[in-house]
Design goal:
328 residues, alpha+beta, five-stranded antiparallel sheet, 27% strand, elongated
Length: 328
Amino acid sequence: MATTSVRGAMARNLFLLIAALATLVLLGCWDNRREMQRVLELGYAANAEIVGASFQRWSPVVLEGWRPRFVEQEVAVDMQWRGRDGKTYRHAKVPVSERFAGMVVAGDKVKLMTVPVKVLDDESSVPVPTFDAANRFDSLGRWIEASGYIAVAALAVLAGMNYWRWRRESRPAIAAAPSRPLRFPAQRTMIGIAALGVGAFLAYSAWSIGDDAGEGGNIEITAEITLVTSNPYAVQLGWKDPRGGVHHYGPVPISERFWKEITSDGALVVRETRVRIRADDPMSLPVILADAPEKQWRTRTVLGVGCALLALGAGCLMSAVRAMRRFL
């Protein structure tokens, strides 16, 4: 009985830790999104130079004075720019999306380039690369949703375990026959819940990356390429929506491969391309179909691992339930 109590306490502590960490991630992503909106609304346009980059996966928290900042992306860049007051400002650990990171980081080397940003001339405001803002907003939304689901699931499991413990301890003792000790399969339950949570997160993330084409009533139209740049690789697009409204968006980041397809000796030779836009938000980041990221083996592998973990978690929980029924 003592061993069962210890295991139960360890399982409850684990789910409490999962809920706490997921809540911290949710709050950190929410704060990043709020800060981005503030800089985009109040900041001014400038050109910032990328002077460095770092991988943040194993150190996602950055301390800026007394205020910690959560870095949800794998790659963060260091930027410096000249402010309106003539002073040079620098900000380290600016999170960038995976697509933007692919433009500036090749292996362990960083491409030192100048990019358009929105900035505020203070040390606490994180600059926002303008053509990466839509990708960052989408990424932060997925992080907030996933961490919220994990936190709710962990708290629900914790509440269920506490209720089960209360029900077991509140049962009256039967003196006529010795009671059989309830062997709560804490290890199987813990593995099952953890596998379900991680599997759901991986499967959802891979599905979101690979199924962006089906979101938000997207439509396909032909857009005009009005400008192309090589440092970084990007294009300026213009198009008419189905109602006849004229829209312009840019710079839109593109791959080197697509840049070579639409240029010759650096000059633009292809003037139109098919793009996908959101019908409910025409000014969201358009997706160039000829340059749309394909489903790579990593996405398929992550999806497979996520589904396998979901099956493993469901099997462990079913086994735990059958084990508990034998002792009821």
